[in-house]
């Protein structure tokens, strides 16, 4: 499966960021690998707990690892990352992002072990020690005006219990309002804040505190990938009693999902189109396959603005193939010229 998917990774950006996360797949019956673990929607129900990596800004999912339901986000992450790098071939990962499940010593130590490994940016759980560190930040160190609803940031060096070294931690807070002294029972009002903390090995010269906060918040787009996979691609649907069959079915689904997203990006590069709408646009088209001698021609019926969009997408697809797949035979005369063609006469040689 990795070999079949390898040609797609040439479309990934050079400054590659991987957003790592896990998801819970509730299972019913007796499936190999289904175990009782963390399951917020169905407590006590057996489940799978796969680990996925999403290429930031592309909606493509280059890696998937099957795991039993009694695992957590950081379980087997080091092996998964090394396997993911082999799958990507020569593509270098610049940054790994993740939520509080990956802000663990063993995961961060893996990044710091060798100089050529990716950087990391993980969210920290607001434990008692983290909250004490936030409270210890002097008021003058918070950047930004202390106004209601306005974000403020600060940073420092912190070594939590279980950490092998000090690491850069970026704090953020937002003023929600103040509680009157009558309610607090004190002689002064108390401010209410919401807090967040992130740990990273990015130097301040690479990204300042504001940029770290913004960089992590862009990870939220990965949640849309999980939502699309589950609700539009049947990611949770197919299950076999044998683990190998369930895993293979999921890998095939992700292969088709990545190919479809890449195709839609070529057809409509200005925005992302989810499967629910994209299938209607690009699959439900009246067409006729005509064979004459040894040549087969696919004739597609398209009119109006849909014709223009399809024509531009096909031209863009041909140019991309010409640039990224030089081993393919080029058509005689170079790229197709659509100018003499009229709507309802678009043809493809098969």
**Largest sheet, spatial ordering of strands:** 6-5-1-7-8-11-10-9
Tally the helices.
10
- Report the top-level CATH class of the largest domain: Alpha Beta
In N-to-C order, the SSE pattern is HEEEEEEHEHEHEEHEHHHHEEHE
Weakly predicted, low-confidence segments? none
What quaternary form is this?
Answer: single chain
CATH topology of the largest domain: Nucleotidyltransferase, domain 5
Q: The biggest beta sheet, please? A: 8 strands, mixed
Structure description:
- This protein is of the alpha+beta class and 350 residues long.
- 32% of the residues lie in helices and 24% in strands.
Quick description:
The protein is an alpha+beta fold and 350 residues long. It has helices at residues 2-5, 77-88, 105-113, 128-135, 181-184, 209-217, 221-232, 243-267, 275-282, 304-324, and strands at 16-22, 25-26, 35-36, 46-48, 51-55, 60-65, 93-98, 119-123, 151-158, 167-179, 190-200, 287-292, 295-300, 346-349.
């Amino acid at each position: 499966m990795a070999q079949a998917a390898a040609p797609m990774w040439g479309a990934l950006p050079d400054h590659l960021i991987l957003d790592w996360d896990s998801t819970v797949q509730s299972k019913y019956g007796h499936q190999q690998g289904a175990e009782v673990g963390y399951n917020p929607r169905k407590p006590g129900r057996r489940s799978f707990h796969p680990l996925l990596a999403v290429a930031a800004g592309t909606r493509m999912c280059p890696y998937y690892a099957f795991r039993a339901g009694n695992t957590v986000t950081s379980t087997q992450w080091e092996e998964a990352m090394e396997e993911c790098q082999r799958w990507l071939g020569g593509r270098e990962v610049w940054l790994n992002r993740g939520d509080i499940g990956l802000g663990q010593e063993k995961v961060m130590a893996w990044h710091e072990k060798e100089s050529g490994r990716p950087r990391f940016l993980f969210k920290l759980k607001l434990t008692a020690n983290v909250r004490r560190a936030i409270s210890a930040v002097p008021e003058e160190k918070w950047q930004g005006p202390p106004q209601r609803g306005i974000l403020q940031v600060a940073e420092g060096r912190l070594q939590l219990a279980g950490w092998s070294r000090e690491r850069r931690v970026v704090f953020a807070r937002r003023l929600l309002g103040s509680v009157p002294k009558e309610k607090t029972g004190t002689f002064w009002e108390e401010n209410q804040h919401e807090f967040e903390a992130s740990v990273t090995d990015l130097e301040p010269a690479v990204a300042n505190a504001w940029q770290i906060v913004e960089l992590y918040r862009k990870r939220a787009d990965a949640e849309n990938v999980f939502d699309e996979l589950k609700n539009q691609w049947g990611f949770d649907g197919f299950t076999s009693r044998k683990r190998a069959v369930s895993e293979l079915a999921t890998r095939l689904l992700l292969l088709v999902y990545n190919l479809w997203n890449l195709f839609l990006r070529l057809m409509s590069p200005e925005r992302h189109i989810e499967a629910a709408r994209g299938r209607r646009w690009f699959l439900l088209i009246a067409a006729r396959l005509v064979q004459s001698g040894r040549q087969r021609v696919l004739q597609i019926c398209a009119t109006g603005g849909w014709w223009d969009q399809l024509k531009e997408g096909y031209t863009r697809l041909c140019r991309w193939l010409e640039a990224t797949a030089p081993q393919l035979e080029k058509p005689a005369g170079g790229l197709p010229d659509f100018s003499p063609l009229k709507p309802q006469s678009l043809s493809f040689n098969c």
